[in-house]
Structures are given as C-alpha cells and as structure tokens.
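pasting for ref
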Amino acid sequence: MTPTAIPPLRLRHQLIQGSQARTPLEVVHTLGAMQGQDYPSLLWAIGLRLSGSTRADIEAAFADQTIVRSWPMRGTLHAVAGSDLRWMLALLAPRRLANTARRDTQLGLDAATYTRARTVLEQALDGTQLTRGEVMQTLDGAGIATTGQRGYHILCHLAQQGTICFGPVAGKQQTFVLLDQWLPPSPSLSREEGLTELVRRYFTGHGPATEVDFVHWSGLTLSDTRRGLALAAGQLRKIDIDGQLHWMAAAATPHPPSPSAFLLPGFDEYLLGYKVRDVVLDPAHAGKVVPGGNGVFKPLMVLDGRVVGTWRKTVKRGAVQIDLEPFETLGAEGAGRFEEQIARYQTFAG
C-alpha cells in the first residue's frame, strides 16, 4: 500500500465520506474522542459526519448527556460519549496531572488549594449549573484566586479528577456541572481494558495511523501504546505503508479514491488526530492553516482527501455566508463540489 491510499481510507473511517452513522453518539463513539475546544466547530465536526443533521440535533445530544465535553486527554477539551468519560479519565488523567505539577507550582496551586476548590464547587454546583464566569466568581469569593491562568487550571484539574464536566448551554454560554450528578452511572474498566478499548477505537476511527500518531493523540507513552496494540491485535490489522507500520480495523477494506469535497471545521480530527499530517496537508501550506503557529487552526477545504485551502464564515443580516480561500485556483469541477458543501453547511447552521 502506498501513501496515496491513506486519505481515502481516513475519510471513510472518520465517517467524513460514506458515513452510515445515525446519531451524534455513534459518531463520537466511533472516533473515540473529538477535539472540542471551540464549541461551534465541534458541533459541525459531528454534524458533517451525520447526514441531514442540524446544529440543534447535535446540541440535543449534549443536553441529554449522551455526549459530553471535558478534558479527558492532553489537557485539551474533547467530546466523548457520556458512558466513556469516567474510564477515559481513569486511564488518561493521571499522567497528565503528573505532567502539570511544575506549572501548578508556578501558579501557586497545591493539593490543599485544589481540595478547597473542589469543596467550594461541590457545594456551589449541587443540583445546579454555573457558567465559567460564575464559577470564577464563586472561587474568588471563597478566597481562591483565579487570576492569570489559575482559574483555567483549577477547572481543568477538577475535571480530570472527575469532579466537574461541561453541562447544558445557558444562552450562548456553556455551563459546568458536577459530573456524577450530570452523567448516569457507567461501567468501569480496568486499566488494560481501557487501554485496549482506546487503542481499538482510535485505529478503527482514525486508521491507517501509526503508533506515534496514537501517542500524540492520547498523551499516553509509547510503551502503553505498544501494550495496547498487543492487547487489541485481534481487532486490528497491521499494514506497511512506504516502509512504516500503520494500523486500522481488521475488517477495514481498501476504498478506491472517489471525487469528494468537504468543508471541515477548525480543529477537526482529520488533521489534528495525527502527529504526522503531510499525507493530507502539504507542509508548504501548513502556515496558512495555523498562521504564525499560534495553535488556532482555520477551517479546512478538503478536496479528494487533501487540504487545498481554508474557509471562513460570516453572518450578514441573519444569513450565513461562506468565503473560500483556496491555496491555488480551483478547477470548475472542484469549485462546483464546494458549492454543494457550502449549501450543506448553511442548512446545518440554520
């Protein structure tokens, strides 16, 4: 298999092309976790993988707790299935929390401060929800300073400990809730069971991918990754692509390239789910996707599996307008395909 086979396979395994998913939960469950620090982008990331869906459909899935936002991995917001959050935190959070110890010291955050913050928020959030601003006011009022980055680190830390998570939307603001009050009980997994499941999900929903890609995505060690691959070996297939080992679902079959065009949101898993991205994005254009390397990814134009430009949304007089910014001039056929995707996004956004 050659590198040119990777984009068509990823488009299908990520449910971007030919998706048969019927619910937001099915989309998120298949991919394992979906990067979600920008809420509107996350809604579209799920919606584009779900034929005929609207923004309201995706928001309803968050409201009914089938999917949830939190910080399960790498200290980055992700959407996961509500029934997966607890075991993912148990598997992934300890390493992340250990890695933030130095930054905690710099911010003056110690175990006693986190314990006080947990107690304050357990009382304040009991049976209700608070916006981020209200949470910060509550902590400050209790004498726990949230200045600088302290407030963000307290929220992230308590989320990774399983105390809080994101709850319903209040107007245009997301709220925080107590995790155990928001999500129903869910099965616990042993560390090996969780590792096996996470590895299986990632390579099923992102494959073909390498072990380095999984390390980047999950925040786990290479040793953990190799252990997980061994445990999940019966459910995955190992393939050599240009001398490098990749994995994907054992049942996956090659898909010949077929003409396609998609408008992906910023931070989509199609790009951020991998350490090595040049198979879908020419390094010469990487700076146009992340200007100045500032960590803010622009929405992507994807043509036949390759990133060929970026796009931006504006709202004028209540109407959604999409402006395409291709890296190079598009042919008439390619431009026509994107017009169909513009119409699809406008319908989704309402």
